[in-house]
């Protein structure tokens, strides 16, 4: 089975609500074997970064490294699906299919 190559851009390493939202969605993606997940980090204003060394943070850092290596080796962004968790005026298009995600209450 061919995996769906997903680039997910969000503030994964910050303690803001959007960071929590991004990490929860990332967990769901990682639990589905159909997706090959790559990450792109957004710095979220002046928010604090995660400081506790957890398994979740380690996985995020590994996925960020995997993405950097993939881009270095391939030179192109050729994503099947691009997910962008941010405020609407910052949404981008980087994939064949693009989804903008907000964290509204």
Walk me through the structure.
This protein has one domain. Strand 1 (4-10), helix 1 (17-30) and strand 2 (35-41) form a beta-alpha-beta unit. It has 105 residues and is α/β, with parallel strands linked by helices. It has a four-stranded parallel beta sheet. Helices cover 32% and strands 27% of the residues.
Strand content: 25-35%
The end-to-end span amounts to: 37 Å
Q: What is the total tally of β strands?
A: 4
**What composes the largest sheet?**
4 strands, parallel
Determine the mean pLDDT. Answer: 90
Give the CA-based shape.
globular
Structural class, judged by helices and strands?
Answer: alpha/beta
Total discrete domains:
1
Largest beta sheet: strand ordering: 2-1-3-4
Quick structural overview:
The chain is an alpha/beta fold. It has helices at residues 17-30, 55-74; strands at 4-10, 35-41, 79-85, 95-101.
Could you list some keywords that capture this structure?
single chain; 105 residues; alpha/beta; 4-stranded parallel sheet; 2 helices; 32% helix; globular
List the helices and strands and how they pair.
Blueprint: E1 4-10, H1 17-30, E2 35-41, H2 55-74, E3 79-85, E4 95-101
Parallel strand pairs: 1-2, 1-3, 3-4
